[in-house]
Amino acid sequence: MKQAGSRTRAVNPVNPAAAADAGIQHAALIALDWGTTSLRAYLYDAAGEVLATRASTAGIMNLPSSDVEQGGFDAAFDDACGAWLKQAPAVPVIAAGMVGSAQGWVDAPYVEAPANANALVAGIVRVKAACGATLHIVPGVLQRGDLPNVMRGEETQIFGALGQETGAVEGGKRALIGLPGTHAKWAVVQAGRIERFHTFMTGEVFAALREHTILGRTMVTPDRPDTDAFLRGVKIARDKGQAGMLATVFSARTLGLTGQLSREQQPDYLSGLLIGHELGGLEALLTQQQNSLAGQHLRLIGNEALCERYRVALAQFGCTHAELVKHATERGLWRVATQAGLVNPAPQAVHAG
Amino acid sequence: MKQAGSRTRAVNPVNPAAAADAGIQHAALIALDWGTTSLRAYLYDAAGEVLATRASTAGIMNLPSSDVEQGGFDAAFDDACGAWLKQAPAVPVIAAGMVGSAQGWVDAPYVEAPANANALVAGIVRVKAACGATLHIVPGVLQRGDLPNVMRGEETQIFGALGQETGAVEGGKRALIGLPGTHAKWAVVQAGRIERFHTFMTGEVFAALREHTILGRTMVTPDRPDTDAFLRGVKIARDKGQAGMLATVFSARTLGLTGQLSREQQPDYLSGLLIGHELGGLEALLTQQQNSLAGQHLRLIGNEALCERYRVALAQFGCTHAELVKHATERGLWRVATQAGLVNPAPQAVHAG
Questions:
Q1: Which of A262, B78, B97, B294 is the most exposed place for a label (fewest CB within 10 A)?
Q2: What separation in angstroms does the CA of A107 have from each of A118, A125, B253?
Q3: Chain A hits for B282, Cβ within 8 Å
């Protein structure tokens, strides 16, 4: 599966058909990464190569015409894929993310962890669009317990990241995969299964503290990220974080009041504090399983700049092998579609390495 | 110092002079608890009894006419105390709280912990109001370190709580005082000094999570507080909180998704989680000092309903002796004014018990 540049080959939204024309006769799959605030569509050929990409802000909480029943989903789907489907109406369609939630187009009930790709395939729910196409909605994963966890979309990205490795060599090894973001996920994967996972609301809590508490009032966004301030926050959380995040975050203000942290440094310091608390919490969970961040070979999926912040922070916990996995979403959607029999990949797309 | 009912004897704002007339000829002190969002004024006689109280929303960030330089402070002060001062212009005036911050009427620089009442008195800064009265502004307290801490107003409440005890019997014992609220404080007091203190942004973080994250979207405010849901949150934080608050708070949503927590239970559950994390953090700090919450005899200052929640939560940490101190603000303002020589208390107001 060649992916080089697929993220940047966004189709011109003014005339998507023209740009997609180049490869539409080879189209084998349309896949949607349909979240809360964004929709991304991929068009693949039979070798799993991404021929075209479309992106919009039509997430499920941001649909173009939500007043008409289900019409909002149809309109967003048409806008993203209508031109492709007009030229290739028989191309199968798969979708992952919040589109399968209770607030989505159709509710694709969670499958329970541990879950492998076959479990996801078995949980696919179909919905027929007004244009006649059938969408295959990938379910999310649920982990029961005192602190239940859920994911929607990340399970597909995780299988996309696993798709790169040979099952024979790495399949039995326990792997740790991090997905930084609004609701950061950390998943333990073994033998091609998501064994268990944890959610840290780091991104959303950062935004809420920054925008809706006294901490934000003294902050000024710097021209460029301040790595020193970020690292200072990570280290404080790691070394002085015993009292927990509710206690340490106040220092973003008091270090300012005492002239030790400028207004421009405060956002990165707070970001470092929160990510440091997340990794400290992850370390505590790993310790319970006779494991540790130190020496881990782990993978990160997500926004590159954010993953880079996590790499810097992870090094403070002794973890210097954090590999950024690119195009996990496209790879994962392709992999689940393949496993579901929606596509018969051409020989060169066999996922053996 | 008799305080019974002083909080409820608010003067009728339509005709404050009439209601205050009863005792104005005995007036010995006007004291202001002037915070960010509220202003409360007390009129005392020479025995330290509160003759009248006035309350308004004219906190320093909510002044009536902030467009005129300093006029906002004068206007709010006149509105609160003008009628009293007209009849008793020579009565001394003391004020504590954010009115002494950099954003306040005058900046009363922090005194450094450890700090006793004499240190507060030495740090008093005076400001002359347009009406001719001089306000004596009590400074806040600063504790330096990697995680600096500041308080403004709470120091006066703490000395108000200490004022109840006999110096001879309790003065040398180490005492723990909690002030739940937007920015909860926990202070260690010994020999009449605030030795050190910690700030937990529990109240403000709760509000930010409730109002500005996905957690609030599934919440419905219950008709009355749900103690079971609250306790469940406290226990989860205590027993399963190793991964930290960023991880546990997501369960307010996922327990709802899995049908284990109703919409009406989610607010109290989240409140219990956060207060549980605060107390777990406090316990970790105490452990560093070979101390523990279990068996502590501590005092709580603040809103009664909130302090009651803390008492319930503290019991889960083995602390069953948490005494609610009432009228700590009025007592503290009176005590600092006395120590500053602003009033010469009548014999019956000696603070020996």
A1: B294
A2: 19, 8, 17
A3: 243
- Name the residue type at position A166: T
**Which chain A positions have a beta carbon within 8 Å of B147's beta carbon?**
236, 240, 247-248, 250-251, 254
How high is the ipTM of this complex? 0.89
> B202-325 architecture in CATH?
2-Layer Sandwich (3.30)
CA dist B168 and A105 (Å) reads: 72
CATH architecture assignment, domain A16-168+328-349: 2-Layer Sandwich (3.30)
Structure token pair of residue A154: 């990340």
User: What is the residue-level pLDDT of chain A in tens, covering all 353 positions?
Assistant: 433 333 333 444 444 444 445 578 889 999 999 999 899 999 999 999 999 999 999 999 888 875 556 679 999 999 999 999 999 999 999 999 999 999 899 999 999 999 999 999 999 999 999 999 999 999 999 999 999 999 999 999 999 999 755 444 455 678 999 999 999 999 999 999 999 999 999 999 999 999 999 999 999 999 999 999 999 999 999 999 999 999 999 999 999 999 999 999 999 999 999 999 999 999 999 999 999 999 899 999 999 999 999 999 999 999 999 999 999 999 999 999 999 999 987 765 444 43
Q: What DSSP designation does A6 have?
A: T
Structural domain boundaries in chain A: 16-168+328-349, 202-325
Same fold, B1-152 and B202-325: yes
pLDDT band at B69 (very low <50, low <70, confident <90, very high): low
Contact B248 A204 (CB under 8 A): no
Can you state the angle between helices B266-288 and B304-315, rounded to 10 degrees?
A: 60
Cβ contact B201–A213 (<8 Å): yes
Q: Do B202 and A242 touch (CB under 8 A)?
A: no
Q: Closest by alpha carbon to A206, among B213, B218, B233?
A: B213
Half-sphere exposure of B38 (CA within 13 A, CB side): 6
Provide the shortest C-alpha distance from residue A63 to chain B (in Å). Answer: 18
Contact at CB, A251 and B147, closer than 8 angstroms: yes
CATH superfamily assigned to domain B1-152: 2-keto-3-deoxy-galactonokinase, substrate binding domain (3.30.420.300)
